[in-house]
Structure formats: C-alpha cells, structure tokens
Amino acid sequence: MKHHYTDFQGIACIAIIFISLSLSANVRAQEVYDLKRVLETGLERNYDIRIIRNDQQIIDNNTTLGNAGILPTVDINAGYNGSLTDIDQKLTDQSSKNYSNIFNQGANVGLNLNWTVFDGFRMQTEYSRLKEFQKMGEINTRLSIENLIANLTSEYYNYVKQNLRLKNLKYAVSLSKERLRIVEARYNIGSMSRLDLQQARVDFNADSSSLIKQYEVVNTSAIVLNQLMALDNVSQKPVVCDTLITTDKLLNESSLWEQTLEANSRLLLSEKNKTLSELDLKAFQSRNFPYLRLNAGYGYTLSLNDTKNSNVDRQNNLGFNYGFSLGYSLFDGFNRRREQKNARITIQNRDLEHERLELSLKADLANMWMAYQNNLELSDLEEENLEAARENYEIAMERYRLGDLSGLELREAQNSLLGAEERLLDAQFNTKLCEISLLQISGQVTSYLE
C-alpha cells in the first residue's frame, strides 16, 4: 500500500512538472497582452464585428437621393423593325390594286428623361427614412462593439482569475508536499503512525489532482479569449500583464443613470424606431397630396419605305418631345385614413415600448448596483479573512513542526487558507463583472479602450 501511494505521488509530481515546463516554454514564445491590446485585437479581427461593419457599409451605400427617388432617371434606347407584306386594295371607284413583297424598314434611337417632381413629400420622407436606417446601423454596430468589449473584458479577467487560482493551487500543493515530507521523516523514525502518513499522501494527491484540473480550466479560458480575438492559433496561451483583478470603486449610481438615458444603445435604437414610425405616418399622409411627373425625350427616327406602295422613299425625324402628368386620388376605399390611423397607434406603441425599456434598464441598473456594492464589501471582508487565514496557517504549521498539532488540524488550517483565497478571487471577479455590466448599461464600456 505504501508503494501504491508513492507511485501515485510520483506520477502526480511528474505530471505537474511537465505541464509547468510546457506552459513556461509557451510563455516565452508568446507576446504579452494587456486589456487594451486584447480589445484592439478583438475589434480588428473578430468576425462578427467585421461582418456588421460590412453591413453598415451596405446601409451607407443605400443612403442616396437616387435610392429615395428624388433624382430623375435617364434612359437611352435604340431599335430596328422591318416588315414584308402583300397588299390588296379596293378603291372607292371599284378599281383594285395589288402589291406583293412590300418591304418597309424603320430604325430609331432616343434619349428619355422621367422625373417625379412632386409626390406629396413622399420622396423626401423616404430619404429621411434612409438616413434614419443609416443611424440605426451605426447604433447596431456600436451595440455589437460594446457587447464584444464586455465579453472580452469579462473573459480577460476570468483568465486572470483562473491563473491566480492556479497559483494558489500550486501553493497549496507545495504546502501539502512540505507536510508530507515532515510526516515521512517522522514516520521513518517511528514518531508518527502510518495513518498520519496515508492521510498526508491522500491530501497531497487531492491537491495535485485539483491543480491538474485547474490547468485544463486555464486552457479553456485561453481558448475562449483567443476565439473572441479571432487569433489564428486559438490554442496558444496568452501572457497577460495583469496579475490582480482591479475594480473601479468610484462609480456613482446617479451619474450612471444619467449616462444610461443619454448613451444606452438600446434606448437610442428605441428612439430611432419611434422616428421611423413617425416617418411612416408622413409617408401615408403624402397620399393626401397630388403628384406631378415630367417626361422628356430627344430622338431620331429613320423610315425606309418600298416605293411600290408609297411616294416617300425615305423619311428622317429628329426632334424633342416633352410632357407632364398631374394626378390625385379622389377615393381609395378609405384606405388612406385607415393607414394613417394605424400609423398613429404604432407611434403610441413605440412610446410605450421606450418607456418599458427605460424601466427595465432602471431595474437592471438598480440590481447590478446592489450586487456591485455587496461584492465591494465582500472583497474588503475577504481580504481581512485572507490575512487572518495566512497568519492562522503559519501558526498551525509552526505548531505542527513542533508536534503540538495534529495533521487534521493542520489540514483544516490549510483548507481555510485556500478557501479564503478562493472567496476573495470570487468576490473580486464578481465585482469586476458588475462593473462591466454597469458601464455597458450606461453606454461607457468603451472606456476600457482608453
């Protein structure tokens, strides 16, 4: 049984050393990232951001006077026609004439212009709609950027947290290893029982197992971070500058709410939706007015006639033509009134949706603010607990070396130390997540780029 534990202990140590050396070799080959560089890399390479920027370019390209119908259209056309006919004529004097194989030809080329001069301001309204769609596209792009920044920042600090946890677990393994060394030495001289030795080995192996699993957690976080940055080598281990999870303790709830009302992307989109509904109403109201359309053309026509049936052998026409049309819909089955009435109801719904969204954001901000404050207090409390746990373990270890403390009591002190480290990391990370959410709600999450 002794050899079994010794073998497991040796395997665990070899595995940990191998993983550590592998990570150290990768670290030397990797570039160092801080949060700003992570965000800049993600905004440059992330596929979702690149796609939505291309979509924004399409919207920009569509925002033109021509697409709104304000500009005229100019067409050029050309044509040719020919006919081969037989003609049988009976004249009023009862005589008749017959012509066979009469071949006539015609050709034309022309330039035509069509222009809707006035349609009840519908074209101007459509151009305003296109510009609003352009602004909505910009807000949607901004919203995607904010989401990516929030996700990248969260994962960046999660990666920092997991590396700190890895450091804590390495320290826990070193403590268990030292305890095992002491127990083995005392067991060999007969001052400690085999039960103490086995328990020390079990605790050491348990800590080693947790450390090995933590390497996997760190690797998973690294892959997620690399994927968000759209790096080619997603399995690389990025080296980050931060070794602590720092939070902004100077946030103010009232200032955050004022910023939310001014800069929240979802609220801005809601306002644009209301503006679009108002423009829809204007488009329906344009049918209350008459319309005026102009057309003009300049062309050339050539006719070649068979002289068997015509005194004109050839005729050329070159000239300018123009005209206009004025119209007004007198009655359309009350559809105009129905459409305008529905449009006004839609505007009311947009107002209600905006108020509902504003209330929802206010509730989210209040909840997140409470969580932020609580986690700040927890962080301060856990820092004090960690100092006490460290001092408690040092005292316990000294008493253990002197033989004045049992292995179970030492293990309890060690678990208390590791638990305090874990709780502090969780409190700091949760505080950071609350901070990110508060800044995202208030439209200030891009401040992480500064």
Strand order of the largest sheet: 2-3-5-6
Give the count of helical stretches.
9
Major sheet: 4 strands, antiparallel
| Helix and strand element order | HEHHEEHHEHHEEHH
Describe how the helices and strands are arranged.
Elements: H1 2-29, E1 32-33, H2 35-45, H3 47-62, E2 73-90, E3 96-118, H4 122-188, H5 194-229, E4 239-240, H6 253-263, H7 265-285, E5 291-304, E6 314-327, H8 335-401, H9 407-441
What's a concise summary of this model?
This protein has 450 residues and is α+β, with helices and mostly antiparallel strands. The chain has 9 helices and 6 strands.
How would you sum up this structure, described in words?
The chain is built from nine helices and six strands, in the order αβααββααβααββαα. It has helices at 2-29, 35-45, 47-62, 122-188, 194-229, 253-263, 265-285, 335-401, 407-441; strands at residues 32-33, 73-90, 96-118, 239-240, 291-304, 314-327. 65% of the residues lie in helices and 16% in strands. A four-stranded antiparallel β-sheet has the order 2-3-5-6, with no helix packed on it. A two-stranded parallel sheet has the order 1-4.
